[in-house]
Design a protein that fits this description.
With about 475 residues, the protein is an alpha+beta fold. Helix content is about 40%, strand content about 20%.
Length: about 475
């Protein structure tokens, strides 16, 4: 063994993948409980002869060989370990002390020791008894995509198929004017999107969980996934409870819109210029956070997802099927889809980009928006945290700075009212939005939306392409500047 690795473990201390054990001349049950927990999580190293605080005591040298034999025998004893495992402990020496290192590989099985299942949580071995928790372990081990589970009694009547017209329009707009879904009938589109598939165990076709989540009626989703919801909370003044709240428990398409509107309502849209073009950092960051928490959560878990806005940060958290426990950065990013069907659907309609690009965007724009890099925490609960403060990214040079100030002044002296400017900002991000959706998005009555939209069209600031049902809006930038 590389002693440098052991020295590093002593410096860092116990983690999800490192455990220290005091050991005399025998191996206690707590060692095997740790072995079981490591097998069920990500694997790791157990060091016998080291105290919890990292002090090296060692094991009796004359007992080390017998201890290793005992470890191998117990791990291969089916009355103690189910299923059994093979371990190859080794003796290491450090500053004249004898220690035993047990390297435990990550297993594709769920193991028990003396009929008790253990899991590794941070630096502790935890007994797992709840059926739902054990089921989650099997899901994690076997790489099962629960979104693909077929529900044979789920019918078309249980889905909001009228949403497919909106889906086609979003896909066409996202693809630049043409998309294979454009001319597909409903049944063909559902099959193309992977929402109606074949169950090869029963040899029967049917709608899967992804279909229910993306298009299902609320009561159907609640019946299939009783714990499914996203709790959107604003906590600036009343930090113990909330200042504003929206419990979002509808299909994923409408959930995206509601969570996005909640963020727009409560977060500032700081002015930022990149390559002479204005970018909405708020919208870029929020889009990635919301699409991530909706696409990549483990929907069969009872853990309730959250989107929280506080004074100095915002965060999303959701149940996760973690391949490892780590802090994700652009350097160690290894994109792995948790729900590939839902993720593909989101990418087709423009709610998300290619897998992994969201992390890079967040690291690119979170610092100019909030003053610090974001944090991506991968574990059974996945968390994204973004700092919030009054910091605004500095323009790159004086020329850009002047252009920023001129554009800000133009807005102040603009012929557009505040409501009209807010409408224009939303139309830039969501050209296919309806006036009713616009009313909810910016919290203005539908009557006022209609009035201001007519005024903007009359001024030539916005124009409509296509019919009322499947068309979209275009913001005429030159008219806006004039």
């Amino acid at each position: 063994m590389d002693l440098a690795k052991f020295e590093k473990a002593l410096m860092i201390g116990e983690t999800v993948a490192v455990e220290f054990k005091r050991a005399g001349g025998r191996v206690g049950d707590d060692v095997y409980e740790s072995v079981c927990a490591f097998l069920n999580r990500f694997g790791g190293d157990i060091y016998l002869g080291v105290l919890d605080n990292g002090k090296v005591e060692g094991v009796p040298e004359n007992a080390a060989i017998d201890m290793i034999k005992n470890i191998i025998n117990v791990a291969n004893n089916p009355t103690l370990f189910q299923p059994t495992t093979y371990l190859d402990p080794e003796i290491i020496r450090h500053n004249g002390k004898t220690l035993i290192r047990i390297h435990v590989p990550q297993s594709s099985e769920v193991h028990s020791f003396k009929r008790v299942v253990y899991d590794r949580v941070n630096d502790a071995d935890v007994k797992v008894s709840a059926t739902s928790q054990i089921a989650q372990m099997f899901i994690r081990k076997q790489g099962i995509f629960t979104e693909l589970r077929i529900y044979p009694y789920l019918k078309k009547e249980d889905l909001h198929l009228e949403l497919l017209d909106r889906v086609r329009l979003l896909a066409v707009n996202n693809a630049g004017g043409d998309h294979p879904w454009k001319n597909m009938d409903d049944e063909t589109l559902l099959k193309s999107a992977g929402l109606y598939t074949m169950d090869y165990d029963s040899d029967k076709p049917g709608f899967n969980l992804a279909a229910a989540l993306l298009l299902g009626r609320d009561e159907v989703i609640h019946s299939i996934c009783p714990a499914y919801r996203t709790d959107a909370l604003l906590r600036r003044e009343n930090v113990d409870r909330y200042d504003d709240r929206d419990v979002v428990d509808t299909n994923l398409i409408n959930s995206y819109e509601r969570l996005f509107a909640f963020a727009q309502k409560h977060l500032p849209d700081k002015f930022f210029v990149e390559d002479s073009f204005r970018k909405s950092l708020r919208n870029i960051i929020v889009r990635e956070m919301i699409s991530n928490t909706l696409m990549h959560r483990e929907f069969t878990s009872s853990y309730q997802a959250k989107f929280i806005i506080e004074r100095n940060r915002m965060l999303v958290e959701n149940a996760n099927r973690a391949p490892a426990q780590k802090i994700i950065t652009p350097e160690n990013l290894e994109p792995k889809p948790k729900n590939p069907t839902i993720a593909s659907f989101f990418r087709n309609i423009g709610y998300a980009d290619q897998l992994g690009s969201g992390v890079r965007k967040m690291f690119l724009y979170s610092k100019p928006y909030g003053g610090a890099d974001p944090t991506f925490s991968e574990d059974d609960v996945f968390r994204i945290t973004v700092s919030l403060n009054d910091y605004v990214g500095e323009p790159q040079n004086e020329e850009v700075n002047n252009r920023v100030n001129n554009r800000v002044n133009n807005r102040v002296n603009s012929k557009f009212s505040e409501i009209q400017q807010r409408i224009i900002n939303v139309l830039r991000e969501k050209p296919a939005i309806t006036q009713r959706e616009m009313s909810k998005c910016i919290s203005i009555s539908l009557v006022h939306i209609n009035k201001n939209m007519r005024a903007l069209q009359k001024m030539g600031a916005v124009s409509r392409v296509g019919n009322n049902k499947q068309g979209s809006w275009i913001v005429n930038e030159e008219k806006e500047k004039s």
